[in-house]
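hey can u check if this looks right to u? its 623 residues, i copy pasted from the old doc so theres a chance i mangled smth
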Amino acid sequence: LRNDYFPLPLALLMQNSSYKHANRTAIHHKHSFHSRHGTVVGWFVSAADAVGQRQHQACAARCDCCDCSDWGDERGREPRADAAGQRGGHVLRQPGHQRDAHRRCAGPRAGHALRAGAAGCWLPTTIPFCPDHQPPQENTATGAADGYYRVTGKPACTLLHNGPGLANGLSNLVRCPHWPLANAQQHNARRGNSGIVNVVGDQATYHRPFDPPLTAPTEEWARGVSALVRRPTRPEDVGADAAVAVQVARTPPGQIATLILPSDTAWGQGGVVAAPLPTPARILPAPATVRDVARVLRSKKNVLLLLGGHALREGAQREAHRIAVATGARLMGTTFNGCIQRGQGRLPLAHVPFGVDSALQTLSWVEHLVLVGAPPPVGFFGFPGKPSTLWPPHAQVHILAREEHDSEGALRALADELGAAKISVPSVGSRPELPGKDAELTPQTVGRLLAATMPEHAVVVDEAVTFGRTLFHDTHTAPPHDWIQVTGGAIGFGPPAAVGAAVGAPGRRVLALQGDGSAMYTPQALWTQARERLPVTTLLLSNRRYEILVGELSKVCNGAGNPGACGSSMRLLELNDPALGWVKLANGMGVEAAQAHTLGQLADLLRHSYSRNDAPFLIELLL
């Protein structure tokens, strides 16, 4: 099944897989975990038909090719106990002979049986299957796969435990905001055009007709989120279906494919390695489209180029700047984006405001709206008496490039059609000084503090929600960095996405800007950060309420002419009775944490966290 165009060789699942055990499903991996285009991104592993309760044995008992039990890491630490209390190898980056031994263990003779009854495993880039790396819930794995794609542009893979496991992870995949499974993490990936391959276990083909407890309408659930769903029924078919799934995930602008594997296709004989399938390239818009948009720009009638997707990468920004200087058009980004490259050397792009009234005012001057890799701007919710679309009724909408197009190439073609000069991006200004330690704690002062202290080439995962809405604007002058946003509004995205971003961007610090209410959806990701020793700084903005819902509920009640109707409901949105103790929660999951009450304390804790290259750190900022 191995597909060398994909960084996660799915084909490792089935090649000569004959391992069987009475109480657990097993997968025998015959090939090395490395392909020509990268190493394994990540797996969320569960037994496809696990009914036994026996715990997994230690690593040395699982690997037939090497002794894993004495593996430490490059810092000389002892191997840590696994979930069953047994000592097993936990190695992120191994020096010398340890790295070679680990590579052997992941090689052609490595065998691996999955933990029975477990939620799953997240196996980052440098970790083959020998050690368990297990997030305690599917939300972490699916969100991490999304975060990985955001920073690398390479698909990641989730391996989920039957239909209920897929259900736990759907919110970050599903396209439709009204999907009923709310506490999961795959809606945002679909909205952010992330490429993901879901491998979902299922009952054995002969056992499913008996309707055992974990039987679910897995295909129906998967179709609502996936561009492709395949359910092979023979081991001989798995390779070809997996190759197609990989191809779909890599098809621009990034898609989700789901492969449902009955457990007897995993343990049965006859698996065949499939040949790699070609990946469709991004295409340029038609020359006539470029000429039509150029005519609009030459008229210079209040034209806005709205950038989204790949148009927000550094190269595309340079081409868009050429156009803006030559024509007087303005540039903006969409409200929510998969990844924006920003900071020093990049454009200080504003984005369409979140609030309907602010967005309508911001875009009121627009007569021609040109979309470049961006959808038309619409309100996040509908409200009484307010429009759904955010551009003026008289404005004309033009499409230069859709999400699947080559946005940078389209902008370059447009700039050349206009005869725009090749110029450098202007400076965004100097990096700000640290605010005074006794300065008032406001979104603006926190933003300046972040810009003043942010490490170069950091990855910012933004789920700061209400308090953090101005942080984007106040960090334009920070060093170069990537900024990842919640694209679908399904909260709980931040902690798992930080896991995937840290795995996908080794050597770069991840700064997770996190609201306290949304963090309660996926706090288990902190445990994964600690287990994998990921360099993640979580700045938890603790106002101890679901402030975003307070605001939205007030808009509905006020718009309906009955503001008093909301009063009795507000207590349901409070998180202060009892108050959440995030320092204790983080410590309980192995993450060092501290509280900050002032800007001075926050600055000291940020600097301390950035110095910890091999460990996560959480700062609870009390607001």
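The first strand starts at residue 26 and ends at 27.
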